[in-house]
Batch of 2 targets.
Target 1
Amino acid sequence: MNNSDLTLDGSTATWTMPPMQGEYQGTYMGTFRFKCYLTPMQSLAANKEYRELLGAHGANASEHDGQLSFALTQLKHRVISSPPFWEQPKQNGEMAGSIPDIGVILAVLDAAIRAEMAFKEKMVKERDLTLKRTITIAEEMLATESEEET
């Protein structure tokens, strides 16, 4: 997976959406900043909002409705900053990202999920590097102690 369009900075990521032609409302583009992960409380809040959007009979909702609800509620908690087109629905009391072009919403969700995956990969690499350094230092200390004893 190529994440060259993402820039990680600590536990946030920046993604510049390339110009994307919408089906209903022209061309979208701009820069998003995402959280690279959700805390347990943020995750619970997103899942609660997901269920609320689907309503009392959510099990009967279409797959499309489920995916759209998931995307919007995840992005509500993951997006830190976004272009004006993303924030505009909030002026009408709607959720940010509530735009008519579903493909754009899914592209933003894809970038946010890739940011989380890239962050996890970075953490694993850093942990492995730290472990290797620790082992090397311990081995050097043992070798030094062994030489001093002889």
Target 2
Amino acid sequence: VVAEVSTASGDSSPGDGGVIPLEEVERRHILHALSRTSGNRTQAAELLSISIRTLRNKINQYRIEGIEIPEPAAK
């Protein structure tokens, strides 16, 4: 059974059954967590239940892919 993912931005393609690749869902989820924590990597990792190291690796991968990552808010 394949679960359909609904997106607020509605950018799944017509005809693809509304299925978004897992890698894209993960990226959006990570970026959302960073947004909710004002870019605080430690808090975002805790929200996502992943290690800070895993989060840093993902952020580095996204930067290599040209995806803009928000910087932590100044204290």
